Every structure is written in structure tokens, then in C-alpha cells.
Amino acid sequence: MPISIDLLFLLATTTYHHLTTWIENRRHKPPGQLIDMGGYKLHLYSRGEGNPTVILDHSLGGIEGYLLIEEIAKMTKVCIYDRAGYGWSDPSPKNRSSKQIVQELDAMLVKAGIAPPYILVGNSFGSYNVRLYASQFPEKVVGIVLTDGLHEAEMLNMSLTLRLLQLFFMSGFAMSMLGSMLGLIRLLGMVGMFEFIKKELGQFPSATRQKIKRSFYQSQHWITMWREMWNLEASAKQVHQVSNLGDIPIVSIKSSTFFKRSIWNFYMPIAAANQLRDRMHAELLKLSTDCTQIQATRSGHFVWVDQPEVIIEAIQKLLDKIKLVN
After folding, report:
1. Strand ranges of the sheet holding 41-47, from the earlier edge strand across to the other edge
2. DSSP E strands: which ranges in 136-249?
3. Three-state secondary structure call for residue 92
4. Among candidates 89, 108, 100, 82, which has minimal Cα distance to 17?
């Protein structure tokens, strides 16, 4: 039986990852608990009290939920988990498609004793995962927030220009993997390059930013980004089987642009990306008979960083709706 290319990529760097992770975890203990998934562990971090529980699923390569976990915890119980290969979670030997990610998420929540009902918050690629989860476990989900979500119908029909941009990103992930192995990503993080490139990060506490940056310092983070991007079309086809989520309440957050223009992205096809985003958001509004849209008027695709208060607003909107129904 042939071995998939993303699995080969994983195996080629496993030894190095375990060594660097061991060193990193001795320096920075995980804030949450490590859940044994049978050969690898996933990191789950819970804060706050209340019902329903908010479950955060991040963007491709992101663990941005740490930026807002304390604010969400003031409203209800909230759980962040680092998908396999990110943060404090071990890499998974299984493919990085949405179907596998959803299976891991539910198994982890069951093992950790995090009881439903859930409000699922999916950021970008995470929107695929939360939609698939809601379709497979509808009895557990009472609401969904999509933060500048993706829609598979448009993603599967991207223009050649945007497909070339996707390949460019994948090559960048591979280069960043090498940079992390050489310690260059860590050096850039230590001198404040992350905050220089994305100045909005400065609004968050240093300790919170460090939780996120330490993941980017590890080669496994970039390998996982590459694997998730490699499987992005497979994930889109899996989610495509879920065209309707009935009457489940959904709040879809739409950014004002996909990329904010800067010296770092002058070469990117921003107009084409925005046209794709507009078509995707039109499709997202059809997912449920109770789907509303909130505009993040000052935000690019990274709403968690650019306009985090809109995410708090969306979660509160669902909590209020659920309270009225009950």
C-alpha cells in the first residue's frame, strides 16, 4: 500500500521534532492538559464556567484562540485545543483532512469529559472542521460562529492565479520549516518581527503572544501547515457533502478585505482574493435557515487580531439566543 506524501514528510522530520519539542516543553509547560489519543497527545486548555461550552478551532497554521480565551471565559466555559502538530500537541500519523480532524476533536472532548452542548467557533480553515463536526454530531451543537470562513464550492473552483498563490504559500511553509530548524524563526520572534509585521499583535499581553509564537518556532508547526494545505482540497470535498445544517444558529463574520495592503503583500492578487471571499460568504449564508452575517469593517482575514471584539459580539449573540430559547 503506497504511503502518502504528507506522511513521508512527517516521518522524515519526526526525530528532530521530538527532540526540539522535549527541549521546548521543558522551558514552557503546557497551560492545559495533554489528552492521550493512542500514540500521540493533544493539548486542551479550558477556562471559565457555564453552559454551553465554546470550542475554538483555529485557522490553518493558527493557534489564535489564546488571544481571546480570557475574554470568552468571562461569558461561559471555553476550550481551546491545539490541532495535532501545533502548539503543545503531538503530530498525528494520520492525514490532516477535516474528516480526520473532526474525529480527533470529538474523541478528545469525550476523553477529557467536556460535555455538550457546544458553540463551535471556526476560524478560516477551522470553519470546514466545525461545519463537518456539526453535521456528524448535531445533537451536541447549539450554535456556530464562522470567522471569515471558507466555502468549498468556491475553493474547489479557484482561478489559476489563486492556485499559484496557494503553491507559493506551501513553498513558504517549507522554507519556514528550515528556518525554524536553524533557529531563525525564533530569532525573528525574539526581536519583535511578528509584531513589526502585524502591529495589531501589540494590543495583547506579552505572555499571551509568547504562547502563540513558541509554536511557530517549532518545525512541526510548519510541517503541519504544509500537510493541512496539501489536504485542503480533500477537506473541501468532505465538507461539500454537508450543504445544509438545518436551522442551527450560525453567525458568519465577514472581513472587509482578505489581505490588508502592505509592503509585505504588494505582490498578492488581492482583488481576486476578495472576489473569491465575496462569493464564499454568499454561499455561507445558505448553510442554515438561521444564519446571520456580521461585518468586521476594519479587519483583514485575521479577524482575531484585527478586530477581536467582533468575535466576542458574535459569541454573545448566540449565547443570548440560546438563553431565550431555553
Report:
1. 33-36, 41-47, 78-82, 53-57, 118-123, 141-147, 250-255, 291-296
2. 141-147
3. coil
4. 89
CA–CA distance, 223 with 83 (Å, rounded to integer): 13
Q: What is the pLDDT of residues 142-185, one digit of tens each?
A: 999 999 998 888 888 877 887 887 787 788 888 888 888 888 88
CB 288 within 8 A of CB 247: yes
Q: Phi and psi dihedrals of 251, rounded to 5?
A: -115, 120
Q: In this structure, how many other beta carbons lie within 10 angstroms of the beta carbon of residue 113?
A: 6
Which three cell numbers mark 66? 489564546
Question: For the whole prediction, is pTM greater than 0.85?
Answer: yes
Question: Do residues 84 and 90 lie in contact, with contact meaning Cβ atoms separated by under 8 Å?
Answer: yes
**DSSP label at residue 19:** H
Could you tell me the CA-to-CA distances from 74 to 77, 111, 147, 312 in Å, in that order? 8, 25, 20, 10
Are the CB atoms for 67 and 212 separated by under 8 Å? yes
Give the end-to-end CA distance of the chain in Å, rounded to a whole number.
52
DSSP 199: G
Written as one letter, the residue type at 226 is: W
Q: What residues have CB less than 8 Å from 241, skipping those under 6 apart?
A: none
